[in-house]
Specification:
16% strand, alpha/beta, 4-aminobutyrate--pyruvate transaminase, PyrdxlP-dep_Trfase, aminotransferase, globular, 455 residues, transferase, binds pyridoxal-5'-phosphate, 4-stranded mixed β-sheet, 42% helix
Amino acid sequence: MSPLSNLAVRDIETVLHPYTNLDKHRQTGPLVLERGKGIYVYDSTGKQYIEGMAGLWCTSLGYGNEELVEAAAEQMRRISFTHLFAGKSHDPAIELAEKLKAIAPNDASKVFFVSSGSEANDTQVKMIWYINNALGRPNKKKIISRHRGYHGVTIASASLTGLPANHADFDLPLPGILHTDAPHPYRSRQDGESDADLATRLADSLEAMILREGPETVAAFIAEPVMGAGGVIIPPATYYEKVQAVLARYDILYIDDEVICGFGRLGTMFGAEAFGIRPNSVSVAKALSSAYQPIGAVIVDEGMYQAMVEESRKIGTFGHGYTYSGHPVAAAVACKTLDIYERDNILGQVNRVSPTFLKRLTALGDHPLVGEARGMGLIGALEIVADKATRRSFDPKSAVAAKIAALAEEEGLIVRAAFGDIVALCPPLIISEDEIGEMFDRLTRALDRAEAWVS
Ligand code: PLP
């Protein structure tokens, strides 16, 4: 192993890393990234990588976008901070709320700003509880999420998340947060079962859970249109139609987590549009500012808003909000990001290049290590298996997807190993067809090297 650089040694001595094997990190050290341009990032030795994950599913306009830099600088010069507490306001927050209301996939009434996806979903949980108290139904508080769903890491949002590592030894999930099945055709389809049959079985299972718990105790359902961190899981056709029919029968609100799918990732402005989802409330973050600033939002419908108005009248305030809710610099950058999406027709760009992305992705389905290659728009995944015919996984201790990610890094490509031995891809939306070709060439080399490694 090469001796650790000075930066690496300083990192190990000082930085506590999120989502990292803290013990292993002491030996391997960090990958220190220093600069970026377009879809490329460069490490401290000058080596170039394609950012095949758009950071953490977020840098949709890529790196070094001068218009976004200028939007931040201009707002900092004008007024670097002011807040939204106690009725104060500012231009960028008002403008951003108007823009979000105009494009949101729900019947949008008001926008509540946060700084991250976790804060958005934590806020969703608190709003749902608050609203049901306002409506005089204090027992209707449970929230149903899904196994493998990812909704963040704060206490309530980590509880909504349906991944083992986010619960184990954190004493989570909180009581009253339940998980129904993941709509994962590759892993859950029974012999001869059609998409429609699988969707019906999943919706029936959701309904059985609601009836078991008592519909009068279940307040809301939360889902990502396409699950991201849980392994880029694309539900079977008719799934959301059937889920929404179940929710409607029991007066259960629909929370749509668009933190990854929002702003063009699937080729539609929101994932909800791609699947015919009609949510009550929507969470957004990440690509809202192309990750140039930390900002997210919860967009609620009129019914939710009116209940909150009522309850705040009773209590004297809506007692929730973060110092940085609607931070003016973040809001100004988000406004500029949404302007660029519109001016540059980002949806047109995604729909132009995604056939090439999906063609190269699907071709990797023939690779001996790949059980399934799946994708939609500009998000995709390879499900790694030991045996293609039986879909048998490798022993999780072998961590083959993590090995592929490490080899890809050597080849100059950043991808991510997701739960379930899955390699995820989510490049910046501005990627060109040639760059997609280069990305898959690098990934193919990593897969071939991994095949030699496992055999
Ligand atoms: N929701 C979804 C769908 C996500 O993918 C994420 C993060 O990856 C979150 C919520 C949490 O966002 P954050 O990491 O900004 O707290």
